[in-house]
Amino acid sequence: MNKNFSILYICLCAITAQGQKTGGSVQDQSQEVIKNFDARLIETEKVRTTPYLPAVDTSVRAQTYSVPNRSVNLDYLPPKLRPVAMKVEALPPQYDGYVKAGYGMPNSPYFDAAYRLTEPKKYNLNLKLKHHAADFKTIANQRFATTGGDISGSFFAPKNGLAVDGQVGFKQDAQWYYGYNHAKDTFNSDASRQHFNLFNIGASVYNAAKTAADIDYRADVKFYNLSDFQGIHENEFALDLKATKWIQEKHPIGIALKGEFLSNDTVSNGKTQDLNTLRLQPFFIYHADLFKFKVGANLGYYKDDFYPMPDLEASVNLGSISAYAGWKGDFIRYTYRNLATYNPYVIPRSKINVGQQLEYFGGVKGAFSFLDYQIQTGWSTYRNLALFLADSTDKFKRFKTIYDTVGIFNVRATITARPIKDLEITGTLSQNAYSPNKEERAWGLPSLDWNIAAKYMLLPEKAFVKANLFVQNGVNYKNAAGQADRLGALFDLSVGAEYWFAKNIGAFVDANNLLNVKRERWFNYPTYGLNIYGGITARF
Q: What pLDDT, on a 0 to 100 scale, did the predictor assign at position 350?
């Protein structure tokens, strides 16, 4: 309280002095300060305070939070894929042409040549010519001679993505009948000769580039004429139209129309045989990451009859292995050309026919380490399956064609292995179990085919060796007494080699049937036994 009074007193003195200065002259208001003012504060009692904390609220209260929903759009750039550099092996040198010519024993000339003219994205033109013959002398008329060639090419129209293919070919195939009884009968070369002349021509039109609607299209037209020394002529015209629409660039849906129209004058009375078939084939294929399935049909038409056949297949991917199963049906056309290709000693005026195949199948395929494989099994029903039985009344012991309904249980396997660098081994196996409906056995058809081939590159692009083993069981036939019998098996071991002395000049040698097995593939027709030929190869 003393402190406050002192401050008030000082302020009043200051105000009084100011009032005196304002009311008089300068001389009357002057003041002389003799001593400085000395204000002191005496000690006072200190007031102490004690703070305290409020009581803690221990009650539980429910808290409610309300957060409004709001969609937030984020604009961002798409991720960029960066290519990963991978080591790419250099491609071997490309050549436009080659010539391979040689000679062998017994009396076996060989010639094979091809040349290519190409302008990328514009056209390519291919020419081929081949001749191979042999005369074994050990058995009269045991010989053959094949000569043929073709010209093919493709032409591209970059502006509209259109492409056109064309092909013209000719083949002359001479076979001699030598299955007759040589101790009893004698025939000169002309009398036992069968000579096939085949002329074929074809053209295709298709899209070589992706279309705006993502539709692929293709049209194929083919024609061939076959004639032989027996005065037989066969003509066939074939038309194949196909269109495919791609859904999301991976699911094709489409339809195909195939028509084959054949006229054959093999009947001895001058009449002709016709084989005219039509097939309408709609399909849809769905691709997923782990599975794929195909739904389709093969709607066939032949001789005023309709043959609806299935085309169903599904597969599932299990990593390194894929499993698949299906049910399919199709026509089998036994034309004179097809029959004579399978059995060159068939009687010329054999009956041509159309068969039907329905097959249930399933299998697995895949790859691991150095091995690629595929194993499949299935059951097929063949209506009008062609069987071949030697005609004992024919002077040349040729084969007549018999048609029967046959069930076939089949197991087949394919393996490709590369155990070490530059070595490739392939193997195929096919085992059939036949169940004929009328005939006692499946005449002339092998039940086991086994083939193993190996190729080893000694020097890259310079030298390689190869080997092949082909095994086939003996086929069923009827012996001279008319009883069912089985012919001997085939073990055909062959080896070969090729060596390049320079960039463009090399040599080759092939030795076939080293075991000299003269097994009869067809009754009364032993195979050729050991045969060797070699020569030179030029590439440019």
A: 85
471-476 contacts, C-beta under 8 A, 24 or more apart: 472/446, 472/448, 472/521, 473/446, 473/447, 473/448, 474/446, 474/519, 475/443, 475/444, 475/445, 475/446, 475/521, 475/522, 476/441, 476/442, 476/443, 476/444, 476/445
Two tokens at 18? Answer: 């100011």
Alpha helices (runs of H) in 283-426, residue ranges in sequence order: 336-342
Q: For residue 430, tell me if it sits in a domain.
A: yes
Helix (H) or strand (E) segment spanning residue 329? strand 321-334
Cβ atoms of 346 and 398 closer than 8 Å: yes
Amino acid at 479: N
Concatenated DSSP letters for 126-186?
A: EEEEEEEEEE--SSTT-EEEEEEEEEEEEEEETTTTEEEEEEEEEEEEEEE---S-TTT--
What is the token pair recorded at 476?
A: 């069923």
Q: Provide the phi-psi class of 444: left if phi over 0, else alpha when psi is between -120 and 50, else beta.
A: left
Helices (H) and strands (E) in the chain, counts: 2, 26
CA distance 355 to 330: 9
Contact status, residue 365 vs residue 373, Cβ threshold 8 Å: yes
CA distance 168 to 111: 20
| DSSP state letters, 296-317 | EEEEEEETTEEEEEEEEEEEEE
* Cα distance between residue 422 and residue 419, in whole Å: 9
In a domain, 448, yes or no: yes
How far CA 22 is from CA of 12, 14, 30, 31, 236, in Å, comes to 16, 13, 12, 14, 145
If one counts every other C-beta atom within 10 angstroms of the C-beta of residue 45, the result is 5
Total count of domains within the chain? 1
Q: What is the pLDDT of residues 102-131, one digit of tens each?
A: 999 989 999 999 999 999 889 999 999 999
- Per the domain annotation, does 215 fall within a domain? no
Q: What is the CATH number of the domain that holds 471?
A: 2.40.170.20
Q: Give pLDDT tens digits for 376-430.
A: 999 999 999 999 999 989 999 999 999 999 999 999 999 999 999 999 999 999 9
Q: Which two tokens stand for residue 40?
A: 């002191």
313 touches 293 (CB < 8 A): yes
Domain with 397, as residue range(s), is 369-540
Instruction: Return the pLDDT at 537.
Output: 96
Tokens of 73: 């759009």
Residue 133's closest CA among 176, 169, 99?
176
Burial of 16 (0-12, 13-18, 19+ CB in 10 A): exposed
Amino acid making up residue 212 = A
Residue where the block lists tokens 């929903």: 69
Cβ–Cβ under 8 Å, residues 436 and 421: no
Domain membership flag for residue 361: no
Q: What is the pLDDT of residue 81?
A: 42
CA–CA separation, 14 and 34 (whole Å): 16
* Distance, C-alpha 310 to centroid of its chain: 22
**pLDDT tens column, 194-232:** 999 999 999 999 998 888 889 999 999 999 999 998 888
